[in-house]
Amino acid sequence: MFVTHLECSLTGERYDAGKAQGLSTAGKPLLVRYDLEALRGKITRKTFEEREPTMWKWRELLPLPDGAPPVSLGEPQTPIISLDRTGARAGASKLLVKDEGRLPTGSFKARGLVMAVSMGKALGIKHMAMPTNGNAGAALAAYATSCGIKTTIFCPADTPEVNVSEIELQGATVYRVNGLIDDCGKIVGEGKAKAGWFDTSTLKEPYRIEGKKTMGLELAEQLGWDVPDVIFYPTGGGTGLIGMWKAFAELEAIGFIGKKRPRMVAVQAAGCAPMVRAFEAGTEHAPRWEDAHTIASGIRVPQAVGDFLILRAVRESKGFAIAVTDEKISAALNEVAREEGLLLCPEGAATYAAYRQSLDDGRVAKSDRVMLFNCATGLKYPLPPVTRTLDRFKPIDYASL
Ligand SMILES: Cc1ncc(COP(=O)(O)O)c(C=O)c1O
Fold this sequence. Notes:
Blueprint: E1 3-8, E2 14-15, E3 30-34, H1 36-42, H2 45-49, E4 80-82, H3 84-89, E5 94-99, H4 109-122, E6 127-131, H5 135-146, E7 150-156, H6 161-169, E8 173-177, H7 181-195, E9 198-199, H8 208-222, E10 230-234, H9 239-253, E11 263-269, H10 274-281, H11 307-316, E12 320-324, H12 326-340, H13 346-360, E13 369-374
Parallel strand pairs: 5-13, 6-7, 6-9, 7-8, 10-11, 10-13, 11-12
Antiparallel strand pairs: 1-2, 1-3, 4-5
Helix pairs in contact: 4-5, 4-8, 5-6, 8-9, 12-13
């Protein structure tokens, strides 16, 4: 184990990594710090390349204490898929999708939650609670149940049915709340104070970000220890974007990649775009977005505790934040499914829509190697009905089918 301490992402104040922690005293996320200098001499790229392609191959860069087993449901490395047809039509030289829908519970939330729950188990936590837009709650339920931790989950009333059902079926107690995810977050905060729940909200504990970080570690190795020119990430709480930015810094510190970084693009929905508004206003924080609405429920996050970390990564990388309409998200989902046979989730489709918009407005060049993130399997979302029928008792005009 190479963890040295936890660090406040705002003030740099140090915290003990050996016990359960929430936010820093400044109310900001804690980041896990490692002895990267020691790791640099001990491990080579080949060590990782030769290991089984799962999330756990990165164990030296993860916080699990020596001897503590991960609470695993089998977390495979996810594939990078080339969108040749749609990419070529847009004139792009290389358009890639990292397909996170292959993970347990069908979304990338598995990466963060398997890490948080594994650490929770190692640190003796008995009851975890969380606000969710759906996928995170499903992943928490699955992992916590698999190791006997009690779980209570709160989601907005209009969370997709499949998410609410899978949460309950996987052993958690789930409540639909008449509000948005930050309203649910307030209930969890009060439960923490009054009933001693462990608050597993995005960035309010230090370990989900470490799990999500593996997306960056993994894609760098998959690209031959290189990074793409641009990453489009559907941004709600931003754990993955912040995590990947941290991953690239750690990979450089241990000598696996150079100084090159992708431009990080935070993709949001036009009906809920606090990061885009703050990016354009040049501010460090992103105030709450009122009346948030979008079909991409995973990115319907009106206010994020890690706002300054998202904006910092986007700006340091010379990237940008961009909003796309629900109409463009639906059209993108249709286009990629019909042309590539790849069923994106609405949030993943938002990254494709944002990419096309950025090509049009010149913020991304056709020659850029671009990586989109599809964060969940499209099968978790309501699909359009098919009304075409065939009567097998009537003559069939095969040539017209
Ligand atoms: C499918 C999907 N995409 C994107 C996100 C946003 O992820 P993050 O919190 O890392 O910004 C979520 C979060 O719920 C999600 O479920």
